[in-house]
Amino acid sequence: MSENLLAEFVSAIPMPALLVDQTERIIAANTDATTMLGKNIETRHFATILRQPQVIDAMEQSLRSKGTTRTRHLANDGAQDTTFEVECRYMNGVGAVSAGAVLATFQDVTHLEQASQMRRDFVANVSHELRTPLTALMGFIETLRGPARDDVAARDRFLQIMTDEASRMNRLVDDLLSLNRVESEERVRPKEQLELIGLLQSIINSLRPLAEDAGVELVLSETHGPVSIVGDSDQLRQVFTNLIENGIKYGGSGGRVDVHATASDRDTAMRGPAVRVQVIDKGPGIDPVHLPRLTERFYRADSHRSRQLGGTGLGLAIVKHIVNRHRGRLRVESDLGKGSVFTVILPR
Ligand code: ADP
Q1: 59, 88, 114, 132: which one has the fewest Cβ atoms less than 10 Å from its Cβ?
Q2: How far apart, in whole angstroms, are the C-alpha atoms of residue 120 and residue 83?
Q3: Domains of the chain and CATH, by start
């Protein structure tokens, strides 16, 4: 292969790529490679350019063994880390006196790395969340078998705590399954025609006992009468149940949770007909530092209070995925000391 043809061939590879021949010099490099490793790298010794020891080793080994080697190259453009999978593949008959050369390609695998890191974090979080109630249950079983065996009063108290811990595990598993279902359906558009104000009224009716127990007044108001939308009524029930329950649980000290629905023909956020449902509480509010991360799985603004109230930390993550599936938006505004407003905007 002529040198020109070789350079053309390397430049057509859709990722950073360079060719090193048996003289250990770079004989061709494409633009992606020069952007990453610096200009004028051709004719230079590969070790002065590749620099990272594991990549130099892989190149040396491939030149020596005339085979294929793989390794990782880590780059940082000042803003973020990028991980490349480097493959050094030997090619016969090219390079100086046709003695063979090694083609090194750099495939960006950062997104794969991030996905596997997220999976590891998720497994660690789930295990931690399950272990906490499990440890409590095992502790109480031990106590009931031993010191508290004949203590009737202690037995009843411990059994109540064990019931609470078991329900916490149950809620966690339910929420995990919900999240899984919602995530797997996120790209399937809902098709059901439903009336939103009636749905909100029915949710409020079923949450009224919870609100009364917490001394919270639950009020629905709307400005347009019935609002028809296309959606998934079970999932939207879950969205508004989670938001109103949170309003009662975390914002209940304000004494009142308002659910307010407004429909418009041209919503500014949706640039078309939409309905906005706001869940408004007058509780302690949320520190602004937490707002950007509030919909992440297991993220809690107030961990102590969430655990005390039996929260799983998954409610808002579920809400976000369902709203996404409906091509809607979720907005959270909060003023410390004044309360919070969770707004769901759905297209009509
Ligand atoms: P949890 O199961 O902990 O309630 P969520 O995902 O529903 O999980 O909520 C995440 C966190 O957001 C909660 O732990 C709580 O700290 C905070 N939060 C949610 N809603 C409110 C609210 N209305 N007022 C204050 N904090 C809230």
Answers
A1: 114
A2: 18
A3: 3-108 (3.30.450.20), 114-184 (1.10.287.130), 189-348 (3.30.565.10)
Q: Pick the closest to residue 189 from 229, 228, 227, 232 (CA basis).
A: 232
Angle between helices 315-325 and 233-251 (to 10 degrees): 140
Residue 316 CB–ligand 1 contact under 6 Å: yes
- Residue 62 CB-density burial (10 A; 0-12 exposed, 13-18 middle, 19+ buried): buried
**Substitution candidate for ligand 1 out of 129, 242, 300, 321 with most atoms within 8 A of CB:** 300
- 309 and 234 in contact (C-beta within 8 Å)? no
Cβ(278) to ligand 1 under 6 A?
no
Q: Give, using CA atoms, the residue closest to atom 27 of ligand 1.
A: 250
Q: Which atom of ligand 1 lies at the shortest distance from residue 279's CA?
A: 23
Tens digit of each residue's pLDDT (9 = 90 or more) over 94-151: 876 778 999 999 999 999 999 999 999 999 999 999 999 999 999 999 999 998 888 9
Query: Is residue 302 within 6 Å of ligand 1 at its C-beta?
Result: yes
Any idea what the Cα angle at residue 77 is, between residues 71 and 82, rounded to 5°?
35
pLDDT tens-digit profile of 276-285? Answer: 999 999 999 9
171-180 exposure pattern, b = at least 16 Cβ within 10 A, e = fewer: ebeebbebbe
Most informative mutation of 216, 243, 250, 320 for ligand 1 (most atoms within 8 A of CB): 250
